[in-house]
Design goal:
rod-shaped; 64% helix; mainly alpha; 2 domains; two-stranded antiparallel ribbon
Amino acid sequence: MPSEEKEIWFRNFADPLIRIVVELVQTKKAELLASQPMNSEDDSTAASNNLCRLQINELEEQTVPKKKGRLVGLARRASSCPSSSQTPYTDPMIMEQLQNKDERIEALKTQNAKILAELADQKKTNNEIIDKMKCLFPDEF
């Protein structure tokens, strides 16, 4: 937002505390965007698209002061009414870890199936041995 528009926008708030809170939230949002890696497109709109409504709500909840357990200037907590139209931010590192865990789970399932098949074969072999023993030593069984 250009500085002139920003100044006019801030003047619309009668309460100076709200003006300070809005400015603080915008500053923290800019810091958060600056700390995120840039897209290959390398434009400023790509970075702003990386923040979803949920992240902005969390940022507001952390920044806005509380008075009697309520967020100053907000009718409700931002987290109490999440936007269903926004998809939550997904961390690529977490997604990679989840993918690795999924692959590990599949490998363990395959290993488990092999072990169960081997156990079934072993049980079959044991039963055959017991049957032969019964034939050889009927008095013992």
